[in-house]
Amino acid sequence: MDETIDGISESAARAASDLRVVFGRLRRRLREIRDSNELTPSQASVLSRLSKEGPASASALAAAERVRPQSVAATLAALEERGLVQRRPDPEDGRRQLVSLTGAARELVEGDRQAREEWLARALQDRCTDEERRTVIAAMALLERLTGP
Questions:
Q1: Would you state the pLDDT for residue 35?
Q2: Which chain positions lie within coiled-coil regions (predicted)?
Q3: Positive or negative CA dihedral for 138, 8, 3, 14?
Q4: What is the model's pTM?
Q5: What is the DSSP letter of 46?
Q6: What string of H, E and C letters represents the secondary structure of 68-80?
Q7: CA torsion sign, 52 to 54 to 60 to 61?
Q8: Which of 9, 79, 83, 122 is 20 to 30 Å from the Cα of 19, by its Cα?
Q9: Cβ atoms 72, 61 nearer than 8 A
């Protein structure tokens, strides 16, 4: 039988371990490509979130990033100093400010995304056969189920 102590099969435990290791390596490699712009991981994360979700208050960013408001304030200050974010009054609550990306930040985020995607596409092209790439696509559909409800 393919069973471990906690009722998790050996194959599930092995798949989980292998996925964690491989995705960790892939994440580090993709981060190396992005790091050419000298952003900290927290700065890159905030820019990415604003790019995907649109303007947000500092408190909403802190909650979404699961960090203290003081940490987001420092991150935003550094991004603002570099001209990557701007603050505007919230039209629904004038006491709050909304943070949004500047044009320079949009270009940076899109350039980073494109560089990472091109690297990955090139690696798949150069290191995998067409059949292996189809296997990766099929595996991604299975992995997508792990992130769903």
A1: 60
A2: none
A3: positive
A4: 0.73
A5: H
A6: CHHHHHHHHHHHH
A7: positive
A8: 122
A9: yes
Closest to 47 (Cα-Cα) out of 98, 81, 85, 82: 85
Eight-state DSSP code of residue 6: T
Dihedrals φ, ψ of 38, to 5°? 65, 30
Walk along the chain (149 residues) in steps of 10 and give the mean pLDDT of each run.
73 94 94 76 93 96 96 97 96 91 95 93 97 97 87
Residues 6+ apart with CB under 8 A from 31: 41
Residue type, 94: G
Evaluate whether 47 touches 105 at the Cβ level (below 8 Å). yes
Residue 44: closest CA among 54, 53, 34, 52? 34
- Domain residue ranges in the chain: 10-147
Question: How many DSSP H helices and E strands does the chain contain?
Answer: 6, 2
The third-level CATH classification (topology) of the domain covering 10-147 is Arc Repressor Mutant, subunit A (1.10.10)
The pair of three-digit structure tokens given for residue 35, joined into one six-digit string = 């790091």
